[in-house]
User: What shape does this take?
Amino acid sequence: MNKTIAVLAGDGIGPEVIQEAVKVLKTIENVFGHTFTYKNGHIGGTAIDKHDNPLPKETIEVLKQSDAVLLGAVGGPKWDNVPVASGPDQGVLRLRKTLGVFANLRPIKTYSSLSHLSVLKQEVVDGTDILIMRELTGGIYFGHPRGRRDNGNSAIDTSEYSIEEITRIADMAFKFALNRRKKVTSVDKANALETSRLWRETVVKIGKKYPTIELEHLYVDNAAMQIIKNPRRFDVILTDNMFGDILSDEAAVLSASIGLLPSASIGNNHPYLYEPIHGSAPKHAGKNEANPIGTILSATLMLRHSFDMEEEAIAIESAVEKAIEAGHRTYDIATSTKIVTTSKMGDIIAENIKRD
Assistant: This one.
C-alpha cells in the first residue's frame, strides 16, 4: 500500500523523536511490503524563524498532498516574546483548523512493568485503560472575543459551543465505546457554565441512540479527583477543549512518563493528525535522551485510524511492550543503569517488529 505522510518535526526534541517514529515506520514498510512517502514541513518556532509564520503556506501545501500528518512538538523559550496570537502554539491550533480535525484521542494505559514508577501507588494505576476524547475546535480557545485586553485593566476570553460541534464528538465517543467497555463519562461544569449545560443536554440526546452504552456525567473538578483516586472506573472520557487539555495532562501522570503517551486528532475527512502529548522539552533537545515511545505509538494510531493497518499497528505495540519488558529505559523511566538513548530505543523497537 502506498501512503504519503506529512512529517512536521517542529521544535526542541521534536526532530529527535520524529526520526525514531519514521525509523519504525520504515521497518513496517520492509516487513509488511508497504511504501510510505515522507514529505517534510515546518511548523511552530522553526517555521517562525524560516517563514515568519507558525504554519506557513508551504506547509499547508504539504498537508494537501498527504494521507496523514505526523507532528513532533512545538515551542520553547526562544519564542517566549513572540505575541500569543502568532506564537508557535498557534501553528498547532491553525493546523487542527486547517485539517478539520475535531476530536483528540488520548489513550492512557499503564504497563505492568512500569506501574511501580507512577507517582501514584501501583495498586491504584495497575490496569488503567482510558480513552480521553477532547473536543478540539470550540470552547474558550476559539470563542469570540478571544485574547482581548481592555486598556490593560482586564482581559477577555470567550467560550462558545454549538450543538453541531458537541454532537459530532459525542457521537464519535459513543462509537468508540461500543468497541471498548461500553461506558462514556461526559465531563462538564453544568452547575456553573451555560456552554456546559448545552454540552450535557446534547450528550444526553446522543446517548439515547446508544442504549448499550452506560453514560455518566461528572463535573470537571470531581472528574479530576476521580482520575487520581480511581482511574480504573473510566473507559471513555468525553469532554470539551479546555477541560480535555487539562484532564489529559493530569491523566498522563498515571503512567510512568508523559513520554510514553500518544494522541490522534481525527475528524470526518483525512488527513488526520498524530502527535505525542508531551511538549518540546527544549532542555533535553540535542542530547539524544528523550523518550520516543509516545511518538512511535502515535505512528501506531496513524496506521490504525488513517491506513486501516491493524496488524501493523499491533506489531509496533507488541514491539514497544517487548522493549519495555526487557528493561530498556530512556532517562525518564530509568531506575537502573540500563539506560538507552533516544535513537537506541528506536533501534530496539524496530528490531522487535515481526510479522506473525
Summary: The chain has two domains: 1-106+257-356, 129-253. The chain has a mean pLDDT of 95.
